Amino acid sequence: MKNLYSIIGLFLLLTGCTTKPGFQISGQLSGVDSDTMFVYYLNMAKGLTEKCDTIVLQDNGKFAFNVSPDTVYPLAIIRKPSGNDMMEMAIAMFTPIHVLAVPGEEAIITGDFQNYKILGTQLYQDIDQVNTAIKPYQEEINRLGREALMMEQRGVSADSIKQVRAEQNRNQNQITEYVLNYIKENPKKKASATLLNYIIEDRRMEGVNMLDASLFKGVMGTYVNPLAESLRTEDRRLKEGDKIKKGSPAPDFTLKNLEGKAVSLSDFKGKYVIIDFWGSWCGYCIQGFPDLKEAYTKYKDRLEVIGIDCRDKDENWRKAVEEHALPWVNVKNEEGDNDLSVIYGVSGYPTKLIVNPEGIIEYVVAGETPEFYKVLDELMKS
């Protein structure tokens, strides 16, 4: 414990990865009321959050540890509360130190959990330069967010709250413009790739398209490529979603049911069809099943329901269909180019559509609302 730098604090992933040097973090933190910190990370390649072993601090708050990542991934360093207070642990989970672990780089962290600074190799100096520049805007966004919340609690008019939210958006746009300009001027810097999440969602592809081709290769490619692919998918989802509206043809599809038989939307021409995008992990989807069952029972001579399960393992889908006794046509969504949640612009779950006997969309809704069944009742009268 006298020389933690010569010992190097433990950083053993629970999944059992190797510990050869690759990425180093060191620093000194104040205000930590225990001698232990936890580390969590998100593996960008696998999309999994995993818990790491502990970091042991010296009495003066110094620490150091090495990891050997094969990919770039974000770390969250959590202070361990003294004792076993669950409330303190929950608070600690929401106030981590965030740092991006990049093979071959070194980060040096100073300050405390409320106000910390990350320097080290050029990458972290570049990121700090940007963070310093946008800090006033971020602080104003946070202040306006608190103000809007207090206004909502006091019952202030919606128009007044809207003005505060608009000011928040203006500050966020200032951050976006600064970061896009930074990337434009520094397309080859690793920092530029790490700043994409600072940009408002509908402009992130601008940042991706400014990056130099070198950042899509090697280690940085493990960070940039999944993010870029995700942004392209979301961009496509938004564009396709604009087409999914009343009066538009419902895109035809073919998916496999529980028995492995191909089922197409066009199989049900001549009937009204409810398309229900859901998942076993979605509580609101499950809560909506009783109302959907009631409507199905009431109109099943003229109506079919196609439940499209999304983001589930096959066994979870099958188990949920059986557990909730879903009596309609059940199929499983496919990821990739034929992902129906993208083709139909699904942005929330559940999403339901009513398609008329000619294959034209009559109604679309995200979430559970009584209005959906009022519209269905009116259509069934015709």
Structure explained in plain terms:
By secondary structure, the protein is of the alpha+beta class. Helices cover 40% and strands 23% of the residues. The chain has helices at 4-7, 86-93, 122-154, 158-185, 190-194, 204-210, 218-241, 283-287, 289-299, 314-323, 340-343, 370-381; strands at 23-29, 36-43, 48-56, 62-67, 73-79, 97-101, 106-111, 116-120, 254-256, 262-264, 272-278, 303-309, 329-332, 351-355, 361-366. The strands form 4 sheets. It has a 5-stranded mixed β-sheet with strand order 13-12-11-14-15. Strands 4-1-7-8 form a 4-stranded mixed β-sheet. Strand 12, helix 10 and strand 13 form a beta-alpha-beta unit. Mean pLDDT is 87; it is low at 1-21.
Distance, first to last CA: 80 Å
Q: Helix amount, in percent? A: 25-40%
Task: Figure out the total of helices.
Answer: 12
Order of adjacent strands in the largest pleated sheet: 13-12-11-14-15
